[in-house]
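Predict fold of Alpha/beta hydrolase; 282 aa.
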Amino acid sequence: MKATESMKWIDVPTRTIDVGGVPFAYRELGPTGGVPVVFLHHLMAVLDDWDPRIIDGIAAHRRVIAFDNRGVGASGGSVPPDVADMGRDAVAFIRAMGLEKVDLLGFSLGGGVAQMVALQAPELVRRIILAGTGPRGGGGIKEINKVAAGAYVKSALTLQDARTFLFFPRDAEGKRAAKDYLARLKERTQNLDEKISLQARRAQLKAIRAAGLHAPDDLSVITQPVFVANGDHDLMVASSNSADMARRIPNARLKIYPNSGHGGVFQHHRDFVPEVLEFLND
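Predicted 3D structure, encoded as C-alpha cells:
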C-alpha cells in the first residue's frame, strides 16, 4: 500500500480496507518506507477530529496512518464496550494493512487502546506515544460520564464545542488555544468523515468507565520506549495518572506541558511535534 506523499491532512483521501469482513476507514500520508505511525483517536472522535498541525507535522517526516476503529465514523460494525476489544480490533486493522511493525500515537481513549495493543501484540509495536491518557484502574477515570455530561451541559448553554471546556483551561491563554484548535479542525471542508453515532458514544463511555474500575495492568511488561505527554491540569484524565503510568513503564519518559489540560498536546503542538519526532528517531 502506497502512502500519499505530497498531500496534506486537509485533502488526503479516505480509504477503506476489509478487516475480517468489516470495512475500516483510514487516511494515509507522508513518505513511504520506514515504520509507520498509527494514530488512535479520542472519545467521540472521528478522522476529522485530528489536529492537522500534529498530523502534517509528523507526516512531513514519517508515514502516518489514522483510522476509525470498529463502529466509529465511516467504519462498519459496532463499537465494543471494552478497551481490550478495541485493542484487538486495532491489532486486526494493523495486520490487515500488512504491517509487521508500527509506532503508536494514542490520545485519550486512543492511548488506552494503544496500551492494549502493546499488551496483546507486543511484537507489532516499536515505540509508543501516550498523550492525555492514563492506565486502566487509574484514579478518577471511572468518573468520565460525570465529567463529560457537565461539559456537554455547558456546551448547550453557551453554544460552544464541549472540547472548549474538556480540553483547555478557562483562562485567556486556554480560551485562545481552544479557539485556534477548533478553527484548525475546520480546515478540511470536503470528503468529511461520518459523525460519531449514538451507539459509539455510549459504548465508548461504558468502556472508559469499565477501564477505570478495572484492576491495574502490569505495565512493566511494556518494554518498548514510551513517550507520555499531558497537560498539567487535565480534567478528564488526571495528570497524576500520566505520571503514574510513566513510572510503571520501564522505558518511559514524561512531559507535562504548563498551563494546559487534556488537550495539552494540541495547545502546545509547536513543542509536541518536534519532541515526538525526536523520540521516534532516537
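Residues 182 and 220 are 37 Å apart (CA to CA).
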